[in-house]
Design brief:
The protein is of the alpha/beta class. Helices cover 27% and strands 19% of the residues. The chain is built from seven helices and 17 strands. The strands form six sheets. A seven-stranded parallel sheet has the order 9-8-7-10-11-12-16, sandwiched between helices. A hairpin with a 4-residue loop joins β5 and β6. The longest helix is centred in the middle third of the chain and has 22 residues. The protein is globular and about 50 Å long. About 4% of the residues have low confidence.
Length: 327
Amino acid sequence: MDRTGNPLTTVGLNSFGFDSTVNVEDLRALYLRPRHRQMSSQTSTEQDPMPSQLRSTYDSTSNSVSYTTVSKFPPVKLLTPHKKKRILVTGGAGFVGSHLVDRLMLLGHDVIVVDNFFTGSKTTVSHWVGHPNFELIRHDVTEPLNIECDQIYHLACPASPPHYQFDAVKTLKTAFMGTLNLLGLAERTKARFLITSTSEIYGDPQVHPQPEDYWGNVNPIGIRACYDEGKRVSETLTYSYQRQENVEVRVARIFNTFGPRMNPQDGRVVSNFVMQALKGEDMTIYGDGKQTRSFQYIHDLIDGLIALMNSDESRPVNLGNTDEFMW
């Protein structure tokens, strides 16, 4: 449903000369299916309108999982060669990255996913493996990458507190060296470069809501500093390449996002509440319970990322929800 209560039939935008609209049902078919079910011998592709997902069957007696792949892929747009782009997505097997990959694939582009699978999972993009428009490369962005592309979406970096605090030095190395390597690639290939930054660059803000020209209030030596400062230096590096090497850059500062494929153990409020509810546990409220958060749905974020990439806006852009809720 949209804000007026009417059902949504498509998601995406047709703006800045780039059409990112896709049918809602095509998108839902990629992930709204049971992740674990007993496959009967009568099951056929005719009974399943979109038999494209990696299927898994759990056997409780042996505590094992059987995986079955299928060869039919979701339908994608047929683009003429001058409209078809070769798009690199780093961190493309993660929560946000996999949804971005889905959208770009459905739009008919060639998509190259690069991920080291530290927090990402092959299962999030397995339904595209084998498709002629899709490539999956296991690679750590802290090492140089030699590839040809038209656009780069740089999402690679642990984003939840348990993950980025697990190895703070690696997080900082990913933020700086990963961004440096991808910007070097963008310079060589003349590709447009978009980096996903974060609302965390504002730190513990003293201004609400935070406009893009707010410089923030960040603790540079705190336990979360590896992520906050890592993203801040990533932005600095990005704009240095814009000024010095004339690289086309876009910076998206992402706020709280939720949706399918969230990691249940990522330590964030939505996943924590859902997991506690599923377990029948009391829901934990931190602080005095008066704090507020703004949440955006994953498909709205993907709309924003694609629109920003194809717009003429090179300044940082906040991507989030203007409505805040108390948790």
